[in-house]
Amino acid sequence: MWGLGAEEWQAVALSLRVAALATLVSLPFAVFTAHLLARRAFPGKALLNGLVHLPLILPPVVTGYILLLLFGTQGPIGAPLKEIGVIFAFRWTGAALAAGIMAFPLMVRAIRLSIEAVDPRLEQAAATLGASRAWVFATVTLPMILPGILAGGIVAFAKAMGEFGATITFVSNIPGQTQTIPLAIYAFLEVPGAEGSAIRLVLISVGIAMAALLLSELLATRVARRVGGR
Amino acid sequence: MLSVSLRHRFSGFALDAAFDAPPGITVLFGRSGSGKTTVVNAVAGLLTPEEGHIAIDGRTLLDTRTGVSLPTHRRRLGYIFQEARLFPHLSVRGNLRYGRWFAPRSAPREDMARVVEMLGIGHLLDRRPGGLSGGERQRVAIGRALLSGPGLILADEPLAALDEARKAEILPYFERLRDEVSVPILYVSHSAAEVARLATTVVALQDGRVLRQGPAAEVLGDPMVLPTGVRGAGALLAAVVVRHHEDGLTELSAGGVPLFIPRVPQDAGRKLRLRIAAQEVILSRQRPEGLSALNILPGTVESIRGGEGPGAMVALATPAGRVLARVTRRSADLLGLAVGVECHAVVKSVAIAPEDVGGGEGTA
Hints:
The complex is a heterodimer. By secondary structure, chain A is mainly alpha-helical. Chain A contains 10 helices and no strands. The longest helix of chain A has 34 residues, at 6-39. Chain B is globular.
């Protein structure tokens, strides 16, 4: 019962690929957004904050449907992208897009918290020593929030591994293309006698989620220590 | 030379100040709320005043009329904050080197080894700031500011967060900075003792206005200028160490008048400056006999300023320099004090605290 079948392997490998792409691509955007929300005052800040958190509150099916409308091959964003050869609909890249959007609020929250823990007076001190804004960020803020960024990335990765509703709505459930672990579990449960496959994938999911949580907790305590300067 | 002219209004407070800071330490002296930190933050570019002009040696940092306002990182300043603000993720060495990355090649460069030796922080270089004492942190912060190749050093009450022992530890480093480094220093303080020890020039601020500016001895000896109130008043005397006595006293000579103070570390022949707090001075018409106080300065009354309360501030011209004495108006009347009257200022040796005595190079 413990050997994974080809279809199960496929789902695990695809999930890892989808989650890794989603996390890596959204990370810089998340750092940028978190910095805006934590440190800058600008008109429309509340709106941006709401927009970032929307996927957390909306039913995933709604998010998936909105993605389909926007990024489908006929959509206002999907159509021009198709012209240059980038297609999301019913592709694994689409699964990564859905996973990335769903995980984005979690990542931004973790990074924003770590930026807010950095004493702005240190950034001021760096400026008086000749560092421009970009250098202040690169040499003071960034190194101090690095553990927070990693923690945010890990939580986002775990969330991306488990994304279901938006993914299945946006890119459907195609084995080898968009069938990630949760989608595969769903499919196995529909087939009589495939409970074994489902349970194995469930255990793998639980394992990955737990490991991610523990690792992010560990990194969060390191943020506190780093900011404390010991 | 730094020249500053500012106008700025907050709710319920207006700053309107102009002054020049020549080489050495210029102390912005005044109570909290007098506008000192606002001035320093405007010089640093952390605050943009409504109107103002700030220049260092002809280099304009701010000119609201032409719309020039250099961002903080291009002003080439070394800012020493009240809390050291060291970077916790860098070692002491990393902190010291931080400003160097950004200093233009043409900036005058202090030698790292010399600064480390001057501040006595060689044994700390590999440590993290989190493990340092308050005094050590502040010394590293001084070094960091100095090594960034600044055209001006700003220090905003750098000793205020430290206890008395740590203050005594840091003060000599500022004296060395004043005497050995050519960068001008703008130093904010509300402590009369700090001003007396460090200031080359004093800019006395009160309610956002410059009350008086000039050489330290002149401003501190002016009975009309009491930016921190009568309790902080005290004149500054220049003296030379004559010798150290067996009984723990050091004999000084101030304009030929012998003065005895609790032992100081400076060798014979060294110049000193000492502050005589006005409220520690007793006045006597006759030269007193059979008195325990060791220091008697003969002089002539220059001015008497009565306040609203029972006190009066008497300025006395002595061979050692001007001495301020805070007495009651009743005493002044009983003694028949008036301008031109001869009189003696009496000061107990132990009334001259160690923090009132400093190396003398900076006296103008």
